[in-house]
């Protein structure tokens, strides 16, 4: 990896993350991943926002950053569907810009494992067909100052991000064990290269609000000029990687990732303030002041019925916070490895921030729960779905 570079003085994008403005969120119906249908939906979604030309200059270098969490095929619904990425890439190219596509998946990545991931997720086919370039996030980064950061004052950000003139994020609508919703703001975590993500996780420990603050800080120097969301098929329940697919039939877009997530929360049937990234953004005056401040110039916003299944028991909002804190481990969820499903690949151990998982080749890993910070990276990244999150009975009772 490259060492710190002279970042200070670089130009950054100017979308007013702190403006408290009323950004638009545009929605378009899209019932399937049929190529022409997705193309039409993405175009229809961008039209009320002024088209792609509103955020892309001819001749500029645009990073299109999907959610490439792990090496799973498109039909698993874990990563952004390649047809949505393709439609966005084509739009950007038609505007006369050069496109690179990439993300930093969770865990430790090598060039060959990343190449395999691009093939498995269908991204390589998009890259080949459109003639854009693949960005490998994990070989070079910049130390980027974030003077007003609430968590860190510097972030290690992949050079693929810092060298782009414009970033367009293409997220996937899913539930998430820690952040309830993973969408337009959570996808920014991929700015951090590879295993460094684990170091940042370690800092936030089990606190979802601190992790949300970190995501907000991370997005401040390089906010996406446009956020698109693949909500054709979403994921509910044990997201972001072990949940159940849910047909939603929409593509969404907004110049504000915060507004987009507020709309996504409404679609899923969650109160926006339940989502830590939205709650903290409102508290810090980042993005729109609330869902009522968003305009919908495309199709009207409708929540799905029934609401998305949550990734765990509802938060203990009616139990006083000091009691929750005191009860600590008694109420805490915890990851458990199902030995029968484990392929003993060791991926969970290598991506565990506090090194709470011991792994010996040829054996099922062992979780030392006293060291666990409940970040659920192990569940997120296990390729076999062998990590389950369990909740003590008292937590389930208190949540009802
Ligand atoms: S629990 Fe999952 S990630 Fe960990 S070793 Fe087993 S299969 Fe691999
Ligand atoms: S065991 Fe799993 S949930 Fe616990 S700290 Fe490690 S990766 Fe995070």
CATH homologous superfamily grouping of the largest domain: LarA, N-terminal domain
DSSP helix count?
Answer: 13
Determine the N-to-C terminus distance.
Answer: 48 Å
Rg (C-alpha, Å): 20 Å
Largest sheet properties: 8 strands, mixed
Globular, elongated, flat, extended or rod-shaped: what is the shape? globular
Number of strands: 14
> Strand pairing plus helix content: what structural class?
alpha/beta
Helical proportion, percent range: 25-40%
Number of domains: 2
What does this structure look like?
- With 400 residues, this protein is α/β, with parallel strands linked by helices.
- The chain has 2 domains: 26-293, Rossmann fold (3-Layer(aba) Sandwich); 321-399, Alpha-Beta Plaits, CATH 3.30.70.20.
- Helix content is 28%, strand content 20%.
- The protein contains 13 helices and 14 strands.
- Strands 1, 2, 3, 4, 7, 8, 9 and 10 form an 8-stranded mixed beta sheet that branches. A two-stranded antiparallel sheet has the order 5-6.
- The radius of gyration is 20 Å and the shape is globular.
- Residues 1-20 have low confidence and may be disordered.
- The structure holds iron/sulfur cluster (SF4) (2 copies).
- One iron/sulfur cluster (SF4) binds next to helix 12.
């Amino acid at each position: 990896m490259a060492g710190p570079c002279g970042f200070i003085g670089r130009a950054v994008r100017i979308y007013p993350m702190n403006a408290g403005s009323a950004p638009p969120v545009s929605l378009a119906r899209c019932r399937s991943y049929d190529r022409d249908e997705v193309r039409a939906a993405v175009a229809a979604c961008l039209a009320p926002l002024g088209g792609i030309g509103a955020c892309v200059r001819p001749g500029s270098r645009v990073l299109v950053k999907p959610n490439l969490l792990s090496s799973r095929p498109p039909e698993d619904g874990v990563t952004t569907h390649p047809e949505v990425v393709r439609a966005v890439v084509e739009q950007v190219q038609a505007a006369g810009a050069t496109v690179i596509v990439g993300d930093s998946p969770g865990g430790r990545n090598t060039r060959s494992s990343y190449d395999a991931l691009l093939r498995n997720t269908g991204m390589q086919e998009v890259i080949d067909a459109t003639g854009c370039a693949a960005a490998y996030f994990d070989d070079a980064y910049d130390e980027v100052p974030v003077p007003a950061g609430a968590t860190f004052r510097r972030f290690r950000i992949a050079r693929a991000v810092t060298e782009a003139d414009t970033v367009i994020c293409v997220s996937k609508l899913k539930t998430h064990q820690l952040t309830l919703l993973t969408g337009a703001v959570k996808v920014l975590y991929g700015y951090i290269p590879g295993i460094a993500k684990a170091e940042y996780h370690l800092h936030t420990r089990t606190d979802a609000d601190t992790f949300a603050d970190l995501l907000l800080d991370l997005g401040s120097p390089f906010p996406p000029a446009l956020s698109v969301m693949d909500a054709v098929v979403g994921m509910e329940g044990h997201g972001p990687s072990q949940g159940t697919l849910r047909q939603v039939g929409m593509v969404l877009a907004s110049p504000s990732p915060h507004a987009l997530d507020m709309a996504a929360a409404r679609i899923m049937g969650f109160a926006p303030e339940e989502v830590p990234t939205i709650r903290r953004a409102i508290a810090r005056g980042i993005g729109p002041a609330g869902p009522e401040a968003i305009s919908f110039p495309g199709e009207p916003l409708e929540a799905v019925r029934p609401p998305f299944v949550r990734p765990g028991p509802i938060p203990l909002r009616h139990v006083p916070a000091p009691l929750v804190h005191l009860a600590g481990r008694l109420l805490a969820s915890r990851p458990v490895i199902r030995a029968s499903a484990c392929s003993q690949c060791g991926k969970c151990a290598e991506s565990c921030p506090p090194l709470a998982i011991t792994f010996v080749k040829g054996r099922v890993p062992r979780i030392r729960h006293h060291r666990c910070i409940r970040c659920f990276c192990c569940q997120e990244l296990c390729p076999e779905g062998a990590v389950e999150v369990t909740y003590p009975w008292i937590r389930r009772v208190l949540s009802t």
